[in-house]
Design brief:
InterPro entries: TNP-like_GBD, TNP-like_RNaseH_C, TNP-like_RNaseH_N. By secondary structure, this protein is an alpha/beta fold. The chain is about 40% helix and about 10% strand. The protein has 2 domains: about 180 residues, no CATH class; about 160 residues, no CATH class. It contains 12 helices and 10 strands.
């Protein structure tokens, strides 16, 4: 949407190079870069670009420029988080990361200091939704010792609805017919939960219901992914068990959980016997494995080194939720407008950067910690070109 106000047009592609005229196409998206502290409770958006699609190479150039400017002010960057579109995989490859699942090295050298490494994290919540989508669409996935079937989840929901109660889990029809709410993270996390696995196991081993016969592999897979997700999404310093932050005291357990999840995902095959990581639905496997490797490497650098500055790592700090919540606040400033114009987005961005007084509205995630936007003066909120 192009608007004319204050003597100039707003809404054309703007990459910060100072060229804004009607020869450029109208912008369709906003690319936002945000910095989140892993050893404190603040976050701050550092740049935005009004774009009409960018190649992986172009996105990589923007990331490099941002890293150089952060390095110039003394900020140490450990990781880069993004979600799973193909352009982001192309961006990571252009930066120097190897995303080949059989020889993976999801990291790249810092453009300002090649001896320093930046680890690429694919948003774990997004990858979990893709795993759910793959299992539901394929109905059955094969493992070396059996089959993982979506049918057992459907049967559990059918049983709970017929009996009018739930067996200690949150599974509902919304989790089975997820297509209309496919962006909601909780509908995926509540499927891959130990409570659902326990209910399936109880129906099979204690109640001996025939419709749950052979669900052992499904139960094991749900527990494996649930444990790995908890490790990759810890947000409470006082958390217990798998939800505890990563410390030197529990690193062996965390490593075993992450390695087990990687092994389980690598062994998945579709009904034709083709490995999932080599098929059309490979993003969920490649992304989840990359996140396991990168989060572990960030933990080693931030916590385990002799001169480490952190006593523990809250892995939720490495998620994309912080940016999602910022977008939710942007939408809230426009009366929960899901499609703000470029001018509206720019105004909301600057207002939120100066002082956050807008409650987040609708979004794919909810507020999970006390990470707030680091304030800035009105002068600093002006776009730096």
């Amino acid at each position: 949407h192009v608007e004319y106000a204050a003597g100039k047009f707003h809404g054309y592609v703007d990459l910060g190079c100072g060229i804004v005229d009607d020869s450029l196409p109208p912008a369709k998206d906003a690319l936002v870069l945000m910095v989140v502290a892993i050893d404190d409770s603040w976050k701050i958006p550092v740049a935005y670009f009004l774009i009409d699609g960018l190649t992986g190479e172009e996105r990589a150039n923007i990331i490099k420029e941002c890293l150089l400017r952060l390095h110039a002010i003394g900020a140490r960057v450990l990781s880069l988080t993004c979600d799973g579109p193909s352009c982001h995989f192309a961006m990571l490859r252009a930066l120097g990361a190897n995303m080949d699942v059989l020889n993976m090295k999801p990291s790249f050298p810092h453009p300002a200091d090649p001896s320093d490494t930046i680890h690429a994290v694919l948003d774990v919540c997004h990858m979990l939704k893709l795993i759910r989508n793959t299992l539901a669409d394929r109905s059955t996935l094969q493992t070396p010792t059996g089959k993982i079937s979506w049918k057992f989840l459907q049967e559990l929901n059918k049983l709970q609805e017929a009996q009018g109660l739930r067996l200690g889990n949150k599974l509902k029809m919304a989790h089975i017919r997820w297509e209309k709410q496919k962006m909601k993270v909780k509908l995926a996390t509540q499927v891959f939960s130990s409570s659902v696995a326990d209910a399936l196991e109880f129906c099979n081993t204690q109640l001996h219901l025939p419709q749950f016969r052979g669900c052992e592999e499904t139960v094991e897979f749900l527990r494996t992914i649930d444990a790995a997700f908890d490790v990759l999404n810890s947000r409470n310093p006082l958390g217990k068990c798998y939800k505890a932050p990563m410390r030197t005291s529990n690193k062996e357990r965390a490593e075993q959980i992450l390695l087990k999840a990687q092994k389980s995902l690598l062994e998945l095959k579709d009904e034709k016997g083709i490995p999932v990581h080599a098929g059309k639905r490979k993003t969920c496997v490649v992304g989840f494995i990359a996140s396991c490797i990168s989060v572990w490497n960030v933990f080693q650098e931030a916590v385990c080194k002799p001169n480490a500055q952190c006593r523990y790592l809250l892995t939720y700090k490495l998620s994309q939720d912080h940016l999602e919540l910022f977008f939710s606040a942007v939408r809230a400033r426009g009366g929960f407008n899901n499609n703000p114009t470029a001018r509206q987005f720019t105004a909301a961005y600057k207002r939120l950067l100066v002082k956050l007084q807008v409650r987040t509205g609708t979004g794919n995630c909810i507020l999970r910690d006390n990470t707030s936007i680091l304030g800035a003066t009105p002068a600093a909120a002006n776009t730096l070109r």
